[in-house]
Amino acid sequence: MDESERLEKEQCQEARVRALLEDGIPTLPAYVFELSALLSSVPVDLRRVCRVIRTDPSLAAQVIRLCNSAMLGLRGRVSHIEHAVVLLGTERLRTLVLTCSLVQRIGNLLSSADLQSFWQHSLLTATLSERSALCLRYLETEQAYLAGLLHDLGVLPLLLLSLAPRDLKLSPGGIPWGESVELERQHCGVDHCLVGKCVGLSWNFAPEIIDVLEHHHRPQDAQRDGILVEIVVAADLVCQMHGVRVGAEPSRIALADRNTYKALLDASTHRLSDDEKTGLARVLELEFPEIIHLLELPIAVIWG
Fold first, then answer.
1. Residue 161: CATH number of its domain
2. Of the candidates 145, 135, 272, 157, which has an alpha carbon nearest to the alpha carbon of residue 209?
3. Which domain holds residue 169?
4. Would you say residue 140 has pLDDT above 80?
5. Stretch among 78-87, 98-107, 198-207 having the lowest mean pLDDT
6. Dihedral sign, Cα of residue 39, residue 42, residue 134, residue 89
7. What's the burial of 184, exposed, middle or buried (CB within 10 Å: 0-12/13-18/19+)?
8. How far is CA 250 from its chain centroid?
9. Which of 88-102, 156-170, 236-250, 284-298 has the highest average model confidence (pLDDT)?
C-alpha cells in the first residue's frame, strides 16, 4: 500500500467514525470530571460532592434510587443526598457518576444483556487498573481508574451500528467486541480503538487517556504514557481471561494463581520489570477474589 492509498484509507475510516458519532454517544457534562476528582481526594469534601450532585436532578434521583434498591438491603428509606453519598461510598458513587450520561443515552437502544456486560467489563477493568497502579506505585491512580473505565468506550457506537438496519446485518453477540479489532474492521470498517480516540478528542480527554483509548490493543505504540497503557492492558486481559467480556455473560468465575497472572503479564507487558510483574501477579491473585462482588451490581437497578 503506497502513501496515497494509506491516506485515502485513513480518510475513509475517519469519515465512517464521524458518521457513527453523529447519532452516537453524548458529550459528558463537566460535573462528571469534577465529581470524579472530588471523590478521589483525601479526605473527601462531602459538602462539595453533594452540592455538585444537586446540579443534576437526574443524577440525584439515581443516587437516591440506588440507596433504596433491594441490593443494599437497608431497613429505612433514604431521602437525603448527604445520607445517600455516605451509604454508597466513594468508589460506587464515582462509578455511578462516570457512567451516568452514557447509560441515559444508550439505555433504550442496546439490549440489557449487552449493556450489563459492557458495564461489568468496564467496572472490573477500572478497579483492577487502580489496584495495579497502587501496587506499581504509579502515582496517578485516579487516571488509571478512569482509563480502565473508559478504555472500551469506542465499542458503544459499534454496538449501535450492529443494531442499525443495513445491507450487512451484524449480530451484537457475533463479534467479540472490544477484543478483536481485526473483526471489527472487517465488519464495520473501523475498530473501537479508532472510534474511542475520536470520542476522546471530541470530549477533550487528557492526552494520556486518549493514548489508552487508541493503543490498548497495541501498547507498544503508546505515545504519552506507556506504563498507564500497560496497566489497563493487563487489567483488560485479566477480565477477558475470567470471561468478563463485552457481549457475553460470564460463567462461574474460576480463580487463578499468581503463576497464571505472571504468564499473562509476561506476554502482554514489556515496559514493566520482571520484579514488577511478579509483584503485580501476587496482588492480582489476592485482590481479584475481593472485587468479584462488583459484578453483582446490576445496571438495571440504577437505571431500570
1. 1.10.3210.10
2. 145
3. 3-303
4. yes
5. 98-107
6. negative
7. buried
8. 17
9. 236-250
The one-letter amino acid at 44: V
Cell 497464571 sits on residue: 260
What percent of the chain has a predicted confidence (pLDDT) above 90? 26
| Distance (Å, whole) CA 278 – CA 259 | 9
- The CA angle 98-103-211, to the nearest 5 degrees, is 50
The answer, as to whether pTM is greater than 0.85, is: no
Nearby residues of 90 by Cβ (< 8 Å), 6 or more positions away: 39, 40, 44
Kindly list the distances between the CA atom of residue 181 and the CA atoms of 126, 187, 214, 264, in Å, as whole numbers in the listed order: 21, 10, 11, 20
Q: How many domains does the chain have?
A: 1
The beta strands (E) that lie in the chain are given as none
| DSSP codes, 181-236 | HHHHHHHHSS-HHHHHHHHHHHTT--HHHHHHHHHTT-GGG-SS-HHHHHHHHHHH
- In the numeric block, which cell numbers belong to residue 245? 467480556
